[in-house]
Amino acid sequence: MLRPSLLLALALALTVACSGEERHRPRGAAAPDPSAPEPPALEVEVLPASRSVRFTTEDGVEIVGTLQPAAHADAPAVVLLHQLGSDRSEWAPLLERLHSQPSLTTLAIDMRGHGESTQSASGALDWHAFDTDAWARARLDVRAALAFLRSDDSGVRPERFAAVGSSIGSSAVIAAAAEEPALTTLVTLSPGRAYHGFDAITPAIGLGDRAILAIVAAEEADSVDTAEAYGRIGHTPAVVVPGNAHGVALFALDPSTVDRTEGFLREHLGAPRPGLSVPVVQPEAPPSDALQPD
Question: What pTM was estimated for this model as a whole?
Answer without folding.
Answer: 0.82
